[in-house]
């Protein structure tokens, strides 16, 4: 069974006027995603998702004009061989960079979907896992900057749905971040896990002021306080308190950058995104490396149900798996456009889909409802 065609489909959804969510990377204007379709000589079609990286047109071009010519004609089940070919011709020389990792991620995910469909097995089973319950937190583009009372009300609404953990967006002013976190803890009580995400907006001075408060409220982690390549600040932040783990990884690409994180000794929670870091094949390698050092994998989620399904399968087959990031955004039609891929239970857990491959039935006619929209997805006031 050979790869015969690779197609990337960019889709966009512009948020309703006045319905933006503000966080450390800016205020959302629209959601973008890239659906990758891989066709085979035996008629099996696989689907994956590539993260748009704020430039969906560039990633689509990479898939069509650079990676597709390298991979068409290869065995569709040879995910390792596909990765090695792209590494040889792109990652190891002129094509090194995040863009290629984003592009390959969707292709790799689609190839795993093909493998599962060919074997008539759900992906978690093909990966060596089981359909087990996975703890989930209310995340995605939600719980952004707002008055403490409104934020607590939004958080409480997710607890009422069954979630036992929520992730708050911080990275605003230190004063406002502290006020929000303290109020949400007061409202939710001590039995709910509060996670925090600064979206790379902090300086080390701000982190020094916020981390002791996060320790007081027993926050589960502080995610991405700094830019992904600022290892010096990550090392310093890890010294401030042993009570709040530092988390990162959604903007680290391939196992080589995770190895740098490991060498820095500054990040205690790893968060690879299967639509960013090189796909399922590379995420397995990252998880295996982390397991040797007892580092938990709390995978980051992207926009569509394809990524969510793949992440659930991956976590169900990962020894050191932690939370699944459940998208609870009020304005993300991509999450359920092929039908719901997860359902939160009263125990605060979810399960991977049961069907072959990713277990997602893709209706391509839906793509016409979400034509690609040029321009940035976030705006920032400097």
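^ Assign residues to that structure.
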């Amino acid at each position: 069974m050979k790869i015969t065609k690779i197609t990337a489909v960019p889709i966009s959804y512009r948020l309703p006027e006045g319905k933006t969510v503000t966080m450390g990377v800016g205020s959302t204007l629209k959601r973008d995603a890239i659906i990758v379709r891989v066709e085979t000589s035996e008629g099996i079609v696989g689907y994956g998702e590539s993260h748009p990286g704020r430039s969906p047109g560039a990633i689509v071009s990479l898939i069509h004009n650079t990676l597709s010519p390298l991979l068409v004609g290869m065995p569709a089940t040879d995910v390792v061989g596909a990765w090695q070919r792209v590494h040889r011709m792109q990652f190891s020389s002129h094509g090194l960079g995040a863009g290629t990792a984003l592009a390959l991620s969707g292709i790799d995910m689609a190839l795993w979907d093909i493998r599962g469909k060919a074997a008539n097995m759900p992906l978690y089973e093909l990966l060596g896992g089981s359909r087990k319950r996975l703890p989930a937190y209310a995340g995605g583009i939600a719980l952004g900057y707002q008055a403490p009372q409104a934020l607590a009300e939004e958080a409480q609404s997710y607890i009422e749905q069954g979630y036992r953990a929520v992730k708050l967006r911080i990275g605003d002013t230190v004063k406002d971040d502290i006020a929000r976190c303290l109020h949400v803890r007061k409202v939710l009580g001590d039995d709910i896990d509060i996670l925090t995400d600064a979206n790379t907006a902090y300086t080390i001075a701000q982190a020094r002021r916020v981390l002791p408060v996060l320790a007081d409220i027993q926050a589960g982690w502080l995610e991405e306080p700094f830019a992904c390549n600022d290892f010096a600040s990550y090392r310093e932040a890890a010294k401030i308190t042993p009570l709040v783990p530092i988390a990162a990884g959604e903007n680290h690409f391939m196992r080589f950058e995770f190895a740098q994180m490991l060498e820095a000794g500054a990040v205690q929670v790893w968060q690879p995104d299967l639509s960013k870091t090189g796909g399922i094949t590379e995420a397995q390698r990252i998880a295996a490396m982390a397991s040797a050092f007892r580092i938990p994998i709390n995978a980051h989620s992207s926009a569509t149900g394809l990524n969510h399904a793949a992440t659930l399968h991956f976590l169900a087959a990962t020894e050191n798996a932690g939370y699944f990031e459940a998208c609870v955004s009020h304005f993300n039609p991509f999450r359920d456009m092929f039908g719901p891929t997860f359902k939160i239970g009263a125990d605060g857990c979810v399960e991977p889909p049961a069907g072959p491959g990713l277990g997602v039935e893709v209706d391509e006619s839906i793509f016409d409802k979400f034509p690609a929209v040029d321009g940035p997805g976030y705006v920032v006031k400097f």
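The domain at 3-120 is CATH 3.30.390.10 (Enolase-like; domain 1).
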